[in-house]
Amino acid sequence: MGLTQRISKWLPSSPSLPVDDVSREKGRSISRFAFFKRRIRLKGNSSISIPLGFVLLFPCLVIVLVLLLFVRHPSSPGGILIPAGTPPSIRKISEKHDKVFASGCLQVEKEVEGKRANAAFVVLARNKELDGVIQSLKSIERHFNRWFHYPYVFLNDGDFDDTFKDTVKNYTSAPVEFGKIDDTMWGYPKWVDHEVAKEGIRKQGDAAIMYGGMESYHHMCRFYSGFFYKHPLLMKYEWYWRLEPEISYFCDITYDPFVKMAEANKTYGFTIAVKELRETVPNIFRYASAYKRKHNLESKGLWEMFLERPPEEEPKPEEGKQDKLPEEILQNEPGENTVPDVDPEAMEGEKYNMCHFWSNFEIARLDWFRSKEYEEFFEMMDRSGGFWMERVSI
């Protein structure tokens, strides 16, 4: 008998289980999980099936995730259990060029005791836009006009019906006037070829320019650019606040912006400056620059806001260090002694950066629109055809 066999005899050995017991234990463990491994069909006759365990586990995971989000939310009572981080810092507005009229909310009771400006809200709308008008009225009344009670002037290229008028009056205690825009302020002027103008608008629609294919949009842009301030209902006012249907204000305005603008000697404000698409107004800068040159106007700082910054010129090598080539080579060298390329978009070396004011909620002095300078500027822009052939709005 070998050494290995002798040692194996001396070592204690565990009793081996019967084969039947092992298979029985294995069968029991399999049967415990067999229920969860059963596959169920998504539909009665569908060939796609998923394990029953996954179906039972998925809702549990969703509930756990919802509970975690609830606990971590800053407004949740359980938020103290899990810190949600520090609140974002408030970005200070630069006062390099100007400063805000007020920071935070003021005491409205004191503000309403002050003087009022000769001002009104101007709303351009149609009867079918009543729901959007109500939305705007509820918002501006809630956040501003319930305290200051400035009047409203509603304008329409048609007639307002009684339903529109009665409904509007139910949402404000301020004075309300309704007016109609006549043909001299709305539509195509007599000196324009209507078919040419309509074709220009159709081309903008074909080019997928936003609102470019809508005649009414072009009429609206022209009206707000050169006619609204001449309407008989607005002739008695000095200031206006443009109000559009379907807008919302999100903060209380606890001071009078008309009065603040007058005190600060402001003319135009409460707009945002965004970039326009170049294909919408390809020629507006040419005419604006021509008007500036024709009237010998000097910039007071705002003109540069609309100009592209010139590219930085590369430093020229010193003449002494240039490798001089024979004259016959220089004469035949491509690009030598040629006239520099002319930028077709530039006017007198200046190029429009496509920045423009979004005027949907602007506040402005009406005497500025009625000035001789602005009237001449609008007349030139109107005669340029930009209100039809492009999507010009000034």
What does this molecule look like?
The chain is an alpha/beta fold and 394 residues long. The chain has a domain at 108-274 and 356-371: Spore Coat Polysaccharide Biosynthesis Protein SpsA, Chain A. Helices cover 38% and strands 11% of the residues. It has 14 helices and twelve strands. It has helices spanning 3-10, 19-37, 52-72, 108-111, 130-148, 162-169, 194-206, 215-226, 257-263, 284-294, 327-332, 366-369, 372-383, 386-389; strands at 39-41, 49-51, 119-124, 152-156, 176-180, 239-243, 268-269, 272-275, 346-347, 350-351, 355-358, 363-365. The strands form four sheets. The chain has a six-stranded mixed β-sheet with strand order 5-4-3-6-12-7. A two-stranded antiparallel sheet has the order 1-2. Strands 8-11 form a two-stranded antiparallel sheet. Helix 6 (162-169) links the parallel strand 4 and strand 5. The protein is extended. 14% of the residues are buried. The model is unreliable at 78-83 (pLDDT under 50).
